[in-house]
Every structure is written in C-alpha cells, then in structure tokens.
Design a protein that fits this description.
alpha+beta; 6 helices; 7 strands; globular
C-alpha cells in the first residue's frame, strides 16, 4: 500500500487508516484467540471492531459453508442450506450439521478496498477432521454475487450467501456492546501491544 493511502481517513469512526499489515496482524491475533471454538460471530465482531478503529470498513456476511479437506477426505458443512446443492451421496458423507434447526450457518467478513475475504474462525472445522486454518484472501469482487469458492492445494471452501439473518442480528448487537473494547484494542495494536479478549465475550 502506498504512503498516500496510509493517511487516508476511514469511512467509519474517522480513524486514520493504518498500514494494511496491521489489519492482517489483527486478523492473525483474533484467529489465534478463538482457535477452534465455535465462535464465528464473536471472532468476526472483534475483528470488525478493531478494523473500524484501524480505519478499515469491513462488512459481515451470513453464509453457508462447505469445506472439503483433500488430504483427509473429510467434508464439513456449516449451515444446512449449502446441502441443497449437494448430491445425496455428498450429503451423507458430510459432517457438521450437528445442531438441528439451530445450525444457522457461519459469519465471515469482506472488505471492498482492497477486496478481501476474511474468515477468522473457520478453524472450528478442525474439530470435525478438516485441517483448515483462518482464511484471509484477496477476492475479485465483494458485491453482486452469490458467494465465493476458494481452492488451495489441500482443501476447498465454498461460501454461499444464504446464511440466517439471525446471525447478523446477533453480530450487530454484540458489535455495539463491545465497541469501547475494540477501540482500546486497536490502540494497543497501533502501539505494538498484544491482543486481549473482552472479559465479557
């Protein structure tokens, strides 16, 4: 990122835009903090709030997710809607739909400039046998599509924009409650201090 962009004012909160490397550092810290816990809303809220105070405008997305680990052969689904596009055989082989009607999907974040997809809590699928860590990848577009498909050497992930709106309601409620903590944490990152979880989260 050029020097001129580093002084650009963020659209949310008027924060001076930090170098993008600081946002990536925040991503890694949040991923490490939540690990394999099933805490996608909490992890994304934390990254969203910190990013806002670093001058970056992220957008929460409610998605259904299909993960396939090529090495182990394990397929994991987060959100029942993604099963609709799978064959009966693939549905039978998939794991992860464990919570009945409460399996509402997953929450990720996207950024428009530059265009990125950020998923700090996809590591939760490791508990079900898929060896996938946090996703922070450039993407071509963030609007006007149905989702994203990412392919790596050892795994693939299909994100479909059809997760429950209840997830986003929970997201914004928690984001408002935790804003002061996120502002403080962004300040810590700017000064080189370590990330800490809000005691109430």
């Amino acid at each position: 990122m050029g020097k001129g962009n580093r002084n650009k004012k963020g659209r949310r909160g008027g924060a001076e835009k930090a170098p993008i490397e600081m946002l990536f550092k925040a991503f890694l810290a949040v991923e490490d903090l939540y690990g394999t816990e099933t805490k996608c809303v909490e992890a994304c809220v934390m990254l969203y709030g910190i990013a806002k105070h670093l001058g970056y405008d992220l957008k929460p997305r409610a998605v259904s997710v299909g993960v396939h680990d090529f090495t182990s052969g394990v397929s994991v689904v987060l959100g029942k809607k993604i099963l609709e596009g799978m064959s009966p055989e693939a549905q039978a082989a998939a794991v992860g739909v464990l919570d009945g009607d409460e399996n509402l999907g997953h929450v990720i974040l996207t950024m428009d400039d530059p265009a990125y997809l950020l998923d700090p809590n996809i590591s939760q699928v490791k508990k079900l046998g898929a060896n996938v860590s946090g996703i922070c990848r450039p993407i071509r577009v963030t609007e006007g599509i149905y989702g994203w498909e990412l392919k790596e050497e050892c795994f693939s992930i299909d994100y479909e924009l059809n997760g429950s709106s209840k997830l986003l309601t929970n997201f914004y409620e928690l984001a408002e409650l935790d804003d002061a903590h996120h502002r403080e944490t962004a300040g810590w990152l700017r000064s080189g201090m370590r990330l800490a979880r809000n005691p109430t989260s």
